[in-house]
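Format notes (please read before filing issues)

Several people have asked whether sequences and structure tokens are stored in separate files. They are not. Every record keeps both together, in the order shown below: the sequence lines, then the token lines. Line labels are part of the format and must not be stripped during preprocessing.
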Amino acid sequence: MSVNQVGVVTRFEFTRTIRRPQFWVAALLLPALMAGVILVMAWAGSTKPTASDPITFEYTDQSGVISETAAAALGGKPAGADAEARAKSGELTAYLAFPADPTTGAVTIIASDRGLIDNSSYSRLAQNLFNTSVDARLGSESTVALVRANLQTTVRTYTDGQPADGLGAMIVPGALVLLLLVIVSLLGNQMLNSTVEEKENRISEMLLVSLPARALIHGKILALALIGLVQIVIVIIASALIYNIAAPGLNLDGLGVEAIILDPLRVGLGLLLLLGGLLTLTALLVLIGAAMPSAKEAAPFFSAVVIVTIAPIYFISTVLINPTSPVVQVLTYFPFTAPMTALILNATGALEPWIGALIAVGLFVIGALILRLAVSAFQRGVIQYDQRLRLADFTSHRVTQRKEYACPPQ
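Then the structure lines:
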């Protein structure tokens, strides 16, 4: 296997893929969805709901708390005869019945239907009337202000005597988690089809006459890496543009983010985990494609790999709240769930750097071993069109002559 042979395969696979319209549609789809969501949120935020008609109501009060003055200011008065019946017939907009103890009993409201959403205005009216009546009993605006005050807090947390970075340091490492999801969704199927395509088209033997299997596999994986890099760059550029456009309307302080903090150690460790996880995932999908006779038969295995890869998302609350739990430990050290789990823990700061480094090294080693197995599977299954490879095929010597015929010395 020579560098030139790998380069030929890489160049061919890369140019063939980026010339396809489907590639650009898939690459631009996520940024388009992000821009669409931002536009819809901006439009929804700028659109004010139509004001509802004022509510005229009558009420009964067994608690003695409700103030007639407060009720009159809101458009209400004490209930007259048959107030409940008139509210049911539509002659009266609303009838409110306050219980003897509003702290334990419910306020009964009988009113005209204003629609599923606007019916909540009746509950708000009852709460407003009750609050206003209680405020009137307090007799002092300063007392009312104290009772109704919402305390503002400023939280400063420390780790080993140093201020903790907080949410600001989670944004960039957390983006690596999203990046893994994006790559799996955009490139996963292409990783699978990278080897099964030639087998389905019956051209694998012709390729292996002039190219070693390792050169073919390595070239395809390098092409996938370049294609993934192109898509990542597109997503990053689009995200930066969308952020700059939407930044004036974003309130990071409201989310508790004072500034975006770049922690070199955490970001570097996250990149290692991302690359190790992608190598393992790519090698596994290439192995599945090499062992399957067609893309149709390989599809269920692809779904299984994707589900296992994103499985930590289903346990996200446990990962965030209790990172030392047995479930999280299993997800952290199992090779195919480790990338996502370790990236999440790294983003939150719950992953020790030396443990993260060991996990990243383990992923690279496992990925390399699976990749070697994928090369062997491709050699052995190159002309096996009608059935998938079995475990026994890797230990059998029945395909030795066929392999020597199909593949030049490596």
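For reference, the curators noted about this record: The chain has two domains: 3-31+165-406, 57-148. DSSP finds 18 helices and six strands in the chain.
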